[in-house]
Amino acid sequence: MRILIVDDDPLAGEMTLAVLEEAGHSCQLAEHGLEALERLTEDATFELVVSDLHMPLLDGLELFQELRERGLDQPFVLLTGDDPTPLLEREPGLRACLAKDDSLEQRLPELLDRL
């Protein structure tokens, strides 16, 4: 699967990229929501977006909403250090919202297998 990872924290972004590439996916990294929006608008071959929630300029939830307003409907997974449950309840179009914790390395590839 071709995945765009969006994270303003270089270490977290590289970790997510490594986990997903280890699982056999082709990934690219965007440093913030505006860069991701530009890439997704220009390149429709991304099959999934995995984005951090808290970022400057355009956060993960705003990125998700802007993509939907533009008619881009790639599955979207939000990663957060917060409790993910309220976000899923508020944004029913999100495929998943996962907590950034010690189990993310295992849970993220498992989630993608189910998508």
Automatic annotation (TrEMBL):
GO annotation, biological process: phosphorelay signal transduction system
A Pfam family per the record: Response_reg
Cited SUPFAM superfamilies: CheY-like
Domain Response regulatory residues, every copy: 2-115
KW Phosphoprotein (keyword) present: yes
Keyword NADP: no
Sites bearing 4-aspartylphosphate, chain numbering: D52
InterPro entries to which the protein is assigned, alphabetical: Bact_response_regulator (IPR050595), CheY-like_superfamily (IPR011006), Sig_transdc_resp-reg_receiver (IPR001789)
Annotated keywords: Phosphoprotein
Top-rank taxon, per record: Bacteria
Name the record gives this protein: Response regulator receiver protein
Lineage: Bacteria, Pseudomonadati, Pseudomonadota, Gammaproteobacteria, Chromatiales
